[in-house]
Amino acid sequence: NAGVTQTPKFQVLKTGQSMTLQCAQDMNHNSMYWYRQDPGMGLRLIYYSASEGTTDKGEVPNGYNVSRLNKREFSLRLESAAPSQTSVYFCASSEALGPLAPSTDTQYFGPGTRLTVL
Amino acid sequence: SQELEQSPQSLIVQEGKNLTINCTSSKTLYGLYWYKQKYGEGLIFLMMLQKGGEEKSHEKITAKLDEKKQQSSLHITASQPSHAGIYLCGAELAGTASKLTFGTGTRLQVTL
Questions:
Q1: Which residues of A touch B (CB under 8 A)?
Q2: B82 — phi, psi (to 5°)?
Q3: B94 has a chain A CB within 8 A of its CB
Q4: Distance, in angstroms, between A82 CA and closest chain B CA?
Q5: Are the CB atoms for A23 and A91 separated by under 8 Å?
Q6: Which pLDDT belongs to residue A100?
Q7: pLDDT, tens digit, for every residue of A40-63?
Q8: CA–CA separation, A29 vs A49, rounded Å?
Q9: Cα-based distances in Å from A14 to A9, A17, A115, B7
Q10: CA distance to B6, B29, B47, B55, B65, per residue, from B62 (Å)
Q11: Mutation test of the interface with chain A: which of B2, B24, B99, choosing the one with the most A Cβ atoms within 10 A?
Q12: Residue A69: CA atoms inside 13 Å, Cβ hemisphere, count?
């Protein structure tokens, strides 16, 4: 099992460009998450999907869109990149089903995408 | 202010020494997770604590959740260079329904 995979690993964009970060998991997990990690801020949740076909905003959703393409895949799109979106982006998945699932489900993380917006 | 505070922010210890990292919140912690991140890599799950007073160990790493479920500590015994990295605590805080909040991390360096 590959676990959680993310592409690309690195990306440099110019302000205003768009791109999609891809995430896939092969653990048959129900929930998937997108986080960004910035120095001194820790990990912050951007969007999550508690089940196939549903998505919800996290702590910092502005400037991003997501698509839960199927149970395996959860993509994050930047429509018009800004320098403030320079960050490391992590995708994660867990077995949890639904937004009120008990907190016993471990989230497994991908290797991250390092994005720089010039 | 951070809802989940980690301390210290960074730590340099000599190989063989013990160390403790703390994770504190003013809210009740549900499902407290500890992760390790190697520089430039993803997060590796270490352990998860749920019940007040719970303690778990994996090799030389022990994590505890206090009885009030507002503070957790991660203790490393006889540190080794392989323990170097960034340690992150994450938890579902009371009232945040299944979303994890993370601390800012503790950067650990182990010197020879």
A1: 4, 31, 33, 35, 40-45, 48, 50, 58-59, 90, 92, 96, 98-112, 114
A2: -70, -15
A3: no
A4: 22
A5: yes
A6: 47
A7: 788 898 998 988 888 988 889 999
A8: 11
A9: 17, 6, 11, 36
A10: 16, 18, 9, 7, 10
A11: B99
A12: 12
Two tokens, residue A106: 């471990």
Q: What is the mean pLDDT of chain A?
A: 89
Six token digits for residue B3? 């809802």
For residues A117 and A82, the answer to whether their CB atoms sit within 8 Å is yes
Could you tell me where the DSSP H helices lie in B1-112?
none
**Tally of CB atoms within 10 A around B31:** 20
- Owner of token pair 């896939």: A24
Does residue A65 have a pLDDT over 90? yes
